[in-house]
Automatic annotation (TrEMBL):
EC number: 1.1.1.22
Listed GO biological process terms: polysaccharide biosynthetic process; UDP-glucuronate biosynthetic process
Matching SMART domains: UDPG_MGDP_dh_C
Name listed for the protein in its UniProt record: UDP-glucose 6-dehydrogenase
Length: 437
């Protein structure tokens, strides 16, 4: 099938290359020349495990190409909209300008029977509005809302082998036809037994934000329990294991620590609250305000812990910050709790040395004044305190005895609860986890 993908940054780069891997002829269109140049050369424009391989593989089949020319979508029967919906500056609501302009750019090229597939995360009601706009120009084209659930770090895997596929389609024969076309697009995962939920536009839009809100709530729930453990002397990791054995609860997403960040969860729950307010259902999502607050409070807690360990003030003390990305296996620093903590300590006058295996260039672009180093050794050299803030495997497996030789003060805050307190204390470290005695 001939498919166009509009927007080739994170979501679009992964979607386009995976659609080619599913056997389709794909053209990716983006206004960003750098991204198009990188993708055209078969190079991943950001760090994502497996993306590089799939791009070079699919690029060489001739089934995958990238361009800045918006008219390249002409000739495709299916058009995926994969642009970003960031948080509006100074507001909680989503900024839909990229989605609107992607659809406007498509309109002159649409032909009867074409299917437009919305993948971006949007406020509920957007699909109906876009469908009406499409109908003004090409009444025989159909919009399907098909949210994406991929996780950074596992994006290729999640796209090729999704947990579920959701289509929001209009009622009637046009919807039936569009559904059949998408069944063809996703023939491979569907034949592997991937569950399919076919529903209306608002439900499909809500599935995405509901899923992200649930995940965010789960994380803030366990972080609230961590706060309780901290005052009562309990261990939140044992608590999470114990409640996680109840399969109605489940152990996944119960890792207490520095909380959630990234380009999705924080902005999605805020945009969801803003949209609920517009719809007069503000009260239904008041709890998400608390989820957001608990999440941000974890960052205060780590800064406060650093101050306590260093005898009341962090000014002029050297602090090694291990991690800048919002999570491991990603170079993404959008709303990164790790980088936020580093920046706050720097503001309080600490001599902060930040390291990360992949995210330093992105971190530098946001916080150019911080000191970045390329290895753990350089970060910890002569440090008074070590902070593990992103649980990269190489940080979670550090040898406490060897590291103790390099620091000035053997104190560590394990803000992701991935180290063994017994081993670290045994090697002479002052060890502090979050929600752990
Ligand atoms: C998320 C959703 O998981 C994905 O389905 C959706 O499509 C996009 O948003 P992503 O932002 O890539 O994906 O990361 P995710 O793995 O969900 O982690 C989000 C944040 O939560 C990270 O900062 C992570 O460190 C944090 N987290 C996750 C915890 O603090 N504790 C946990 O137990 C799990």
């Amino acid at each position: 099938m001939q498919i166009s993908v509009i927007g080739c940054s994170y979501l679009g780069a992964v979607t386009s290359s995976c659609l080619a891997a599913l056997g389709h002829d794909v053209v990716g269109v983006d206004i960003n020349e750098r991204i198009v140049a990188e993708l055209s050369a078969g190079r991943a424009p950001f760090f994502e495990p497996g993306l590089q391989e799939i791009l070079s593989e699919q690029g060489s089949t001739g089934r995958l190409r990238y361009t800045t020319d918006p008219s390249a979508v002409a000739g495709s029967a299916v058009h995926f909209v994969c642009v970003g919906t960031p948080q509006r500056a100074g507001e909680n609501a989503a900024d839909l300008r990229q989605v609107d302009s992607a659809v406007e750019g498509l309109l002159p090229h649409l032909r009867p029977g074409d299917v437009v597939v919305g993948k971006s995360t949007v406020p509920v009601g957007t699909a109906a509005r876009l469908a009406a706009r499409i109908a003004e120009v090409e009444p025989e084209a159909t919009l399907v809302w098909n949210p994406e659930f991929l996780r950074e770090g596992f994006a290729v895997e999640d796209t090729l082998h999704p947990d579920r596929i959701v289509y929001g389609v209009p009622d009637g024969p046009a919807g039936e036809r569009a559904r059949a076309i998408l069944d063809e697009v996703y023939a491979a995962p569907l034949s592997d037994g991937t569950p399919l939920v076919v529903t209306d536009y608002p439900t499909a839009e809500l599935v995405k934000v509901a899923a992200n809100s649930f995940l965010a709530t789960k994380i803030s729930f366990i972080n609230a329990m961590a706060e309780l453990c901290e005052v009562a002397g309990g261990d939140v990791t044992a608590l999470a294991d114990a409640i996680g054995h109840d399969d109605r609860i489940g152990r996944k997403f119960l890792n207490a620590g520095l909380g959630f960040g990234g380009g999705c969860l924080p902005k999605d729950i805020r945009a969801f609250m803003a949209r609920a307010g517009e719809l007069g259902a503000d009260e239904a999502l008041t709890f998400l305000r608390e989820v957001d607050t608990i999440n941000l409070r974890r960052r205060d807690r780590v800064v406060e812990m650093a101050r306590q360990i260093l005898g009341g003030a962090v000014a002029d003390r050297r602090i090694a910050v291990l991690g800048a990305a919002f999570k491991p296996n990603s170079d993404d620093v959008r709303d990164s709790p790790a980088l936020d903590v580093a920046a706050r300590l720097d503001q309080h006058g600490a001599d902060v040395r930040v390291t990360d295996p992949h995210a330093i260039p992105n971190a530098r672009a946001i916080h150019p004044h911080l000191t970045y180093v390329t290895s753990v050794d350089e970060a910890v050299d002569g440090s008074d305190l070590v902070l593990l803030v992103t649980e990269w495997r190489e940080y979670a497996t550090l040898d406490p005895a060897a590291l103790a030789q390099k620091v000035r003060g053997a104190a560590i805050i394990d803000a992701r609860n991935v180290l063994d307190p017994v081993a670290w204390r045994g090697a002479g470290w002052t060890y502090r986890g979050l929600g752990r005695p």
